[in-house]
């Protein structure tokens, strides 16, 4: 029976006087692909940073595979992060390193494997993302979709249990979007991962995600299967999922309490 991979319990976070998240409660089941969606500035990426331990919550707790990550000391947290793979929006490849060295670097950093085994591991990850033969290329020689797949190979090089994706589909052409989406799903299922994806791509999430959490106005406005949320009774959820201009979610931010479509 699947266990809870991530538990967010009454999670709150603020920046200065501005409340970003207020009383967030969510459970993410092991083995699932979960999308965190919502308007820009709602705090979606903040949740990823809280889960990875980059930020500390003002209130509440985060448990990953049963452990409260904010009760860990520094060395425990660094060791625990080996179980977490992260794919950033731009891939964040090292521009002065080859594709091979980009993937090999975290393996060398965190393991004592001999070079022969590191090479086999790197080549297996490259073949898994369909880019065998690119190991000697530099990042500037890659297309956007290729760079995203190389970054994906690097993120799973240490065989993490939890994958965090921050806008992995942004800026890609339709073919690359479909390729990366399929790669996320197939890798998640083949390796028994748990994947959390921050994205605005409603169409792809309806095909990819098992569950979707909509963040709006500092709280969870709705949750469920993406195909079901389009018909939600909550007008914020329905507006976001259907891309409607008119609705309770404003177009332009003015302050924490004042919003306007026209400024």
Beta-strand percentage range: 25-35%
| Number of separate domains | 1
The tally of beta strands, per DSSP, is 12
Strand order of the largest sheet: 6-7-8-3-9-10
Quote the CATH topology: Rossmann fold
CATH secondary-structure class: Alpha Beta
**Quick one: biggest sheet?**
6 strands, mixed
The name of the CATH superfamily reads P-loop containing nucleotide triphosphate hydrolases
Order of SSEs: EEEHEEHEHHHEHEHEEHHEE
First-to-last CA distance: 51 Å
Instruction: Give the name of the CATH architecture.
Output: 3-Layer(aba) Sandwich
Structural class: alpha/beta
Please state the CA-atom Rg, rounded to the nearest Å.
Answer: 19 Å
Mean pLDDT: 85
Number of helices: 9
Query: Per the principal axes of the C-alpha atoms, what is the gross shape?
Result: globular
Portion in helices: 25-40%
Which residues sit in consecutive blocks of at least 5 with pLDDT less than 50? 254-263
Task: Please give the structural blueprint.
Layout: E1 4-15, E2 18-29, E3 33-37, H1 44-51, E4 59-64, E5 67-68, H2 74-80, E6 84-87, H3 99-110, H4 115-128, H5 144-155, E7 162-166, H6 174-191, E8 194-198, H7 202-208, E9 211-216, E10 219-224, H8 226-229, H9 235-242, E11 252-253, E12 259-260
Parallel strand pairs: 3-8, 3-9, 6-7, 7-8
Antiparallel strand pairs: 1-2, 1-4, 4-5, 9-10, 11-12
Provide a brief overview of the structure:
With 263 residues, the chain is α/β, with parallel strands linked by helices. The chain has helices spanning 44-51, 74-80, 99-110, 115-128, 144-155, 174-191, 202-208, 226-229, 235-242, and strands at residues 4-15, 18-29, 33-37, 59-64, 67-68, 84-87, 162-166, 194-198, 211-216, 219-224, 252-253, 259-260. It contains 9 helices and 12 strands.
């Amino acid at each position: 029976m699947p266990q809870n991979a991530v538990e967010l319990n009454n999670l709150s976070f603020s920046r200065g006087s501005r409340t970003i998240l207020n009383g967030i409660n969510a459970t993410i089941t092991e083995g699932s692909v979960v999308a965190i969606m919502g308007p820009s500035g709602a705090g979606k990426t903040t949740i990823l940073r809280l889960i990875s331990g980059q930020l500390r919550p003002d209130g509440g707790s985060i448990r990953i595979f049963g452990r409260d990550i904010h009760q860990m000391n520094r060395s425990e947290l660094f060791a625990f992060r080996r179980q977490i793979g992260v794919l950033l929006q731009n891939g964040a490849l090292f521009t002065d390193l080859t594709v091979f060295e980009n993937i090999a670097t975290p393996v060398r950093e965190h393991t004592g494997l001999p070079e022969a085994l590191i090479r086999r591991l790197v080549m297996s990850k490259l073949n898994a993302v369909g880019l065998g033969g690119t190991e000697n290329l530099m990042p500037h020689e890659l297309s956007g979709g290729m760079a995203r797949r190389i970054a994906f190979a690097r993120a799973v090089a240490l065989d993490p249990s939890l994958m965090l994706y921050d806008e992995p589909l942004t800026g890609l052409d339709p073919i690359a979007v479909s390729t990366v989406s399929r790669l996320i799903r197939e890798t998640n299922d083949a390796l028994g991962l748990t994947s959390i994806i921050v994205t605005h791509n409603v169409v792809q999430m309806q095909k990819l995600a098992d569950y979707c959490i909509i963040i709006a106005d500092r709280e969870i406005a709705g949750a469920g299967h993406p195909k079901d949320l389009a018909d939600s009774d909550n007008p914020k959820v329905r507006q976001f999922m259907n891309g409607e201009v008119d609705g309770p979610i404003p177009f332009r931010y003015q302050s924490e309490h004042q919003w306007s479509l026209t400024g």
